[in-house]
Design goal:
Structural class: alpha+beta
Number of domains: 4
Helix content: 10-25%
CATH topology of the largest domain: Tachylectin-2, Chain A
Largest sheet: 5 strands, antiparallel
Mean pLDDT: 89
Strand content: 25-35%
Shape: elongated
């Protein structure tokens, strides 16, 4: 093969991300032109991408020490590879050398932003723990793992998983027309071993395209999957599809609309998450589309189930995405936690697993490293936990124990995670009417995060009481929650719950009593006005702060009328005018404190609705009655839609 043709083959293999073909062609090129450092650097990158870390390190070293100025970036990659070997001190030296000596190139400046995270990761790797590991992690027993790759495990039940595999025990060259396609398989656990039962019966398993990964909706009625094929440049491009479970099985996958996809970009790793809004599910996915924070970012769209409509795709935000790559999101419906992998945050090597609690772009805190109990110095991805046995989980990794094909750590396998100690926080709540003590089956419990750093609230989930007024609630550790009991015919109640500082599992029973919303007015005590005046005294403001204002905060959808009444002294017209001004002064004060003016209506009643006689039967004055009649009260007259208050977009 002529050298020019060989160069074209290299370019084609690079476009196709076919690392093994790149290696074969570049080895030949470097032998023909040993003085050409560009080919050696490309060879180092191909070894690196194929996870042949030793050969990659050798080639990066040759390039760096041959021309440290031009190939400054090579020592950054040398540091990365030393992290996979857990040689964190050497990695630190390499990263610092990169910082100290190389300031010029645009590429160097980009990678310097990554170095900070790499150095933090080295510190994390060097930290010693006195505690014994809390996990046992081993390759899945049975015949699920083969010499090539297994990934995207989905737990169907405690004994069944679906996953994607490339069914070959040989090296696969992506440019080959006869290469096998990645497909979805089903496996069952019997006697402690996971055995592949069959190829999943699904239209996407026809073998026409590669399956990138897939995710099931919470009710397992919808499958989101990425299908991948080469474009006209032979570059592998993925798009996301939706397949629905029908009477006769899975329906044909339909590509997601243009609200999600942009041309000339790839979309993969879909993951279904729960939405705090009714009739919605959130689909997180990975893309290199424009507007991201780094290389590959996590994005999301919402699917409106009843309308079968997708919202415009948005970025999951800087609490999730970094300047590096984020990939393989998975959502835990049990804890409302998003797991994903990143190489742009502080990790102990390769892609580390990270986690965050929240939804869409609203997260309680920036994503945190899932820790050494689950991460290795290699690539760790796709963590999922068994829903009915939280001490078990699965992850995908090329760590020690993965099956070798051409070299160690080349290929991803599925591993089982056994947690030795799982701290679970469970609340069993019963909601009853305060007066009748009867259970309430019409209460929706809204689980929110208390005092989020963004200054608002983040709604994590909504749960409705059963026929006996009961809710079982499982909460994530280390968070201050605010539970909101919402009912159409009862006043809301906020229940603060904290799981911070817990070191053991906790299970609590609690009865919550809700007060029915009366049809009549409720008097606000201790609101007094100076004679013939409408302004609020300091004492009156204190009374408002501790009564109606608190009620408005706890019941963010109620529309209330603020009513003011007078006694019968003065003319009826005058008293009507004075009472209207007094009611309006209360409304104005509440609006100044942040209440939505759409929820408030001022109504002056004058002397028209006394609750006690102003004059006694014998014609004498009744000071006590007049005092009772001079009152400010409120009553519920309507309700806003809950989504108006809790929707952040």
């Amino acid at each position: 093969m002529k050298t020019n043709h060989l160069k074209k083959q290299v370019k084609g293999a690079i476009r196709a991300n076919d690392y093994y073909s790149q290696i074969d062609f570049l080895v030949e090129l470097t032998q023909r032109k040993p003085e050409n450092l560009k080919y050696k650097y490309e060879l180092a990158k191909a070894y690196d991408k194929s996870r042949d870390y030793q050969r990659a390190l050798d080639e990066y070293s040759k390039v760096f020490y041959a021309d440290q100025e031009k190939y400054a970036i090579a020592i950054y990659h040398m540091g990365r590879i030393m992290k996979t070997r857990e040689q964190y001190k050497i990695a630190t030296l390499y990263f610092n050398q990169f910082i100290d000596k190389h300031n010029n190139s645009k590429e160097s400046r980009h990678y310097k932003k990554l170095v900070k995270a790499e150095l933090e990761g080295c510190k994390l790797g060097l930290q010693k723990s006195m505690d014994a590991p809390n996990t046992g992690i081993f390759p899945l027993k049975g015949n699920v793992n083969r010499s090539n790759i297994e990934f995207s495990p989905n737990i169907i039940d405690n004994n069944t998983i679906w996953f994607v595999s490339l069914p070959s025990d040989e090296i696969v060259f992506l440019e080959s027309d006869t290469m096998p396609k990645r497909r979805i398989y089903a496996a069952n656990e019997r006697n402690g071993k996971w055995n592949v039962d069959s190829l999943l019966s699904h239209p996407s398993n026809s073998g026409k395209e590669h399956i990138g990964s897939f995710s099931l909706s919470k009710d397992k009625q919808r499958m989101y999957l990425s299908l991948c094929k080469p474009n006209w440049q032979n570059k592998m491009v993925c798009n996301i599809y939706l397949s629905k479970l029908e009477n006769e099985g899975w329906g044909e996958p339909e590509i997601l609309p243009e609200e999600v996809h942009q041309s000339n970009h790839t979309y993969t790793h879909p993951c279904v998450g729960v939405s705090s809004k009714k009739d919605r599910e959130i689909i997180y996915f990975v893309s290199d589309k424009e507007g991201g924070k780094g290389g590959y970012d996590i994005w999301y769209t919402r699917y409106r189930i009843s309308k079968q409509k997708f919202d415009k795709a948005r970025n999951a935000g800087s609490k999730i995405n970094s300047i590096g790559d984020e990939t393989t999101p998975s959502f835990d419906f049990f804890t409302n936690k998003l797991y994903f992998s990143s190489n742009g945050r502080a990790g102990i090597g390769g892609f580390d697993l990270f986690e965050a609690v929240g939804e869409r772009s609203k997260w309680i805190y920036p994503a945190v490293n899932s820790g050494k109990n689950i991460n290795s110095s290699y690539d760790d991805m796709y963590y999922v936990a068994f829903p009915k046995n939280r001490s078990r989980g699965l992850l995908v990794s090329n760590r020690e124990g993965s099956i070798d094909l051409k070299h160690p750590h080349c290929c991803d396998d599925i591993f089982e995670v056994n947690w030795k100690k799982v701290i679970e926080v469970e609340y069993n709540l019963t909601f009853v009417d305060e007066k009748t003590q009867k259970p309430l089956n019409n209460v929706e419990l809204i689980v929110t995060v208390k005092d989020s750093p963004d200054g608002g609230i983040i709604v994590l989930q909504r749960i409705r009481t059963d026929i006996m007024g009961k809710i079982q609630l499982n909460l994530q550790l280390g968070i201050d929650f605010q539970l909101i009991a919402d009912s159409d015919i009862h006043f809301n109640k906020q229940i603060p719950v904290s799981t911070k500082g817990l070191v053991e599992s906790s299970k609590k029973e609690k009865t919550i009593m809700l007060s029915a919303i009366p049809k009549d007015e409720i008097i606000i005590p201790n609101i007094y006005y100076p004679f013939d005046q409408a302004y609020l005294t300091p004492e009156a403001k204190t009374a408002i702060d501790t009564s109606i204002y608190e009620l408005l905060i706890e019941n963010p959808t109620l529309i209330v009328e603020i009513g003011s009444h007078t006694d019968s002294k003065g003319t009826g017209k005058y008293n009507q005018h004075l009472s209207q001004k007094r009611a309006q002064s209360v409304v104005n004060y509440l609006v100044e404190k942040g209440a939505n003016k759409k929820r408030l209506e001022a109504k002056g009643y004058g002397e028209s609705k006394p609750i006690k006689p102003n004059i006694l039967a014998d014609g004498s004055d009744n000071p006590k009655g007049r005092a009772r009649n001079r009152r400010t009260a409120f009553k519920v007259i309507g309700e806003l839609e809950m989504d108006v208050y809790y929707e952040e977009e």
